[in-house]
Structure formats: structure tokens, C-alpha cells
# Entry
Amino acid sequence: MIQIYDKLTEAAKRIREEVFMKEQGFQDEFDSLDAISRHVVIEVDGIPAGTCRFYQGETPSTWVIGRVAVSQAYRGRHLGSLLIEAAEKDASQKQAERMILHAQCTAAPFYEKLGYKGFGEVDEDEGCPHIWMEKDLLKAEK
# Structure
């Protein structure tokens, strides 16, 4: 089951703490963007297994996806793809034409399979290489 919330839920918070803080060692996981984001939570057999957030970017037609996380026990089940699809669909209903995200470079191939393309230079977030990626939702619909 996939649910979308207007606030950061405890389930989403727990998944992000598990994946980004405990597993990957990030410190600055929660920020002011959580308050303006929509939060997707996917459950498997009633157990929260994955989450992401998305919010309107600098223009009404551009939305930003971030904090995509799937609990280790649920990886390999295409839940990450379902999270992205849910965010794209919801944002499209709000006139989004383009989605962007700041991917860990190791995750870039995953996003490329979903139609995202890298742009700009590689930069670091807490010592981890990241790249900005984008997807034209209008071209993807055709």
C-alpha cells in the first residue's frame, strides 16, 4: 500500500534514520524542506518499508524528489521505483512538468532506468558524491 502525506510521519522518519543515519552515516538528515514536502510511504504486509519526499521547486512546473529510502529487508522488490512513480504521479496532478533529484552517484544507474538524466557537476553532500538528475514528465507521458 502506498500513502502520500502532507507531513513527515513517524514511519518515514524511522526509515530515513535507519537507511541514511545508521546505515550510511549521514548526520544532517532532517531539514526545513520536510515541512514543505509531501511524503510517500510504502508498506509491505502493513509494515512501513520505504519512503521519499517531494516538493515544488523554484517554479510551479519543477518538483524535487529527495530522501528516497527503502529498508534493507525490503530491497530488491522494486519498491524504490514505486516510490518514484507515486511522487511523479502526484506532482503531475499539480502541474509538474519536470522532476529533479540530487542522487548519490552510486544510485544514478537506478534513476537512469526510470528515465532520469544527469546534469551539472558532481558535488558532495556530507562527503558523499552526488549528481543532479532530471526527468521531463511531459516527454515521459508520450
DSSP finds five helices and seven strands in the chain. Residues 10-23 form the longest helix (14 residues). Strands lie at 2-5, 38-44, 47-56, 62-70, 98-104, 117-125, 128-136. The mean pLDDT is 94.
